[in-house]
Design goal:
The chain has a 5-stranded antiparallel β-sheet with strand order 1-5-4-3-2, with helices on one face. It is built from 2 helices and 5 strands, in the order E-H-E-E-E-E-H. The longest helix has 14 residues, at 64-77. Helix content is 26%, strand content 30%. Strand 3 and strand 4 form a beta hairpin. It has helices at 10-16, 64-77, and strands at 2-7, 20-22, 32-36, 39-43, 49-53. The protein has one domain. It is α+β, with helices and mostly antiparallel strands.
Length: 81
């Protein structure tokens, strides 16, 4: 996870940009996961969104374990997320 940012206007971005919404893995209800370019966006029910980049991101190969790991790491960095 590189270039981690907290976004406050992500909902507005999803209306103007082409993001691919990924299926939310079991056990992570309330989270929304999107990919766009080399960035991953994870939003929670409080409308907080974390954006980060991954080298050589291929949204077709992202697994549920990947997403669980990212959210675990986000909670370590931002406990209130």
């Amino acid at each position: 996870m590189n270039n981690i940012s907290v976004l406050t206007d992500f909902e507005a971005l999803t209306n103007t940009s082409n993001f691919r919404k990924l299926d939310t893995p079991e056990g992570l209800d309330g989270y929304s996961i999107y990919c766009g370019g080399n960035f991953v966006f994870i939003s929670n029910t409080s409308n907080r969104t974390i954006r980060f980049s991954l080298g050589n991101l291929n949204s077709q190969t992202i697994s549920a374990d990947d997403i669980h790991g990212w959210i675990k790491r986000i909670h370590q960095l931002y406990p209130n997320f």
